[in-house]
Amino acid sequence: MPGAKISALGCYVPPGVLTNPDLEKMVETSNEWILERTGIVERHIAAPDVATSDMAVEAARVALTQRGIDAAEVEVVIVCTVTPDMFFPSTACLVQDRLGAKGAWGFDLIAACSGFIYGLTVGSQLVMSGAHKKVLVIGADTMSRIIDYTDRGTCILFGDGAGAMLIEPAEPGEGYVGALNEIDGSGGEYLKMPAGGSRMPATAQTVADRLHFVKQDGGQVFKFAVRKMYETCKTLLDTHGLTAKDVKLLIPHQANRRIITATAERLGMNCDQVVINIERYGNTTAATIPLATRDAIESGRLKKGDLVLFAAVGAGFTIGATLWRWSY
Ligand SMILES: CC(C)(COP(=O)(O)OP(=O)(O)OC[C@H]1O[C@@H](n2cnc3c(N)ncnc32)[C@H](O)[C@@H]1OP(=O)(O)O)[C@@H](O)C(=O)NCCC(=O)NCCS
């Protein structure tokens, strides 16, 4: 069975920035509160005419340019998102067409903040099974379209962005090491967008009741995330006979700085082992992991041969962690 490696990475964030002082003018909050409780300083917000597929295409182009290949060589496009341009056609179809990935098939993957982790698992399995040689996994979310900017409990947290990784066959000793994914649907009530699906289709009333926005019980999500991020990482490492000391970098989903530092502390990792860039982007849902990986590479913290642990918890609840031996 061939291995699978991440051979290229591309990211895109829209130029518009929403700062904490901007939010102070919109809801009853303060820069100090947001910084202390979340670690976020600013987030990027897409212009009104920009949708998720637009950011996904930009990120994918960067990855393909870095790898020096034509889009026609891509065999599968997986778009991880909870903010598709529309329910159907899938955002993967829109991206495939715009990119010119002529021979590719693909689909959207809905796993909220764990989307990119699940995408890496699915993409690597498609390569390791021998079925495909070039799988593009894209995490892209325009969270600003489903955030209620009158709800101070959620509007301070989220931003927009996209990231893409190309997965290809690997040589022994590089690339994919393992993954552990889980769902706990009993937590579905704590983080959701209630209306717009078949359970509660859009009506004038659902719009008036603001049910097409993210609703969250922040405390419940926080507690679950802190516990499961740690447990999942620990179990995955144990399964492979590894300890936190073997990991060069933990690249976690960026939901709240306190969730990340609590996870790292429980794993016994020091700050040099953890990537945090939430201050600049907020929570971009499926895009946080590639954005944080890009920052780790650009700052020289992630190099060929390093063992990297990606981990996330998201709405659902969805949970995932995956280990890779970095390949470039
Ligand atoms: C949302 C979150 C930042 C709130 O932080 P917290 O420390 O848990 O704060 P609480 O919810 O306990 O609220 C504490 C107080 O701050 C208030 N508060 C909430 N948002 C506020 C804001 N933006 N500014 C000022 N005060 C705020 C609350 O109303 C509450 O006031 P009260 O005690 O008078 O009721 C935090 O719970 C969190 O990050 N949860 C996880 C969210 C997440 O990760 N979601 C995505 C999952 S991938």
What distinguishing features does this structure have?
328 residues, alpha/beta, four-stranded mixed beta sheet, 11 helices, 13 strands, globular, binds coenzyme A
Question: Explain this structure to me?
Answer:
- With 328 residues, the protein is of the alpha/beta class.
- It has eleven helices and 13 strands.
- The strands form four sheets. The protein has a five-stranded mixed β-sheet with strand order 1-7-6-4-5, sandwiched between helices. Strands 8-13-12-11 form a four-stranded mixed β-sheet, sandwiched between helices.
- β12 and β13 form a beta hairpin.
- It binds coenzyme A.
- Coenzyme A (COA) binds next to α2, α6 and α8.
- Coenzyme A binds next to α2, α6 and α8.
